[in-house]
Amino acid sequence: MIGAGEGRQMDIEEGRLGPLHLYAISSGPAPIPRDEVPPVVYRLFEQLRERLADIDIEISGRAIAWYERVIGEFGEHSQRVWVGYVADDDEVGGEMSPIVLDGAEHVAIGMHHGPMATIRQSWNELFDWVHEHGGHSAGYMREVHLKAWPYPEDEWVTKLELPFDEDDDDPIGE
């Protein structure tokens, strides 16, 4: 574990991620402004749960949200939102096939406790940590919802995973 460090609210550790098979849907081609992301995530998870129930697929895996950074119509920084549930290996095929979310060799990992309204601060800490250690983000930012619905938001626990690349002249951890 790397530790919280000066001015940090959460412990940050470095790890690796393997690829995941997920039943997933996205917000579509239109970019979503950052301040509008939380309600979109909630709505997409609800739609995905309904779609999976309609085709008799039982949700047994973790809930994961991830984000593609895109530039909006007027040059603003926005995101395309994806949500999914980890698929059991024996569920591949049928009416809805899982997609593969690629793994990553280097990932900054932290735990966010509490409502989604305050998650930006936790993401900023991860981005700052990567930058301070000479890296840059690379890949999809992921949120693994460890404790979420139907619990009160102040009890939620979300694992944040930020893939990054190391700069050759200043590797993280050295």
UniProtKB/TrEMBL annotation:
Residues spanning the signal sequence: none
Highest taxon of source: Bacteria
Stretches assigned to the AraC effector-binding domain: 10-165
Name this protein carries in UniProt: AraC family transcriptional regulator
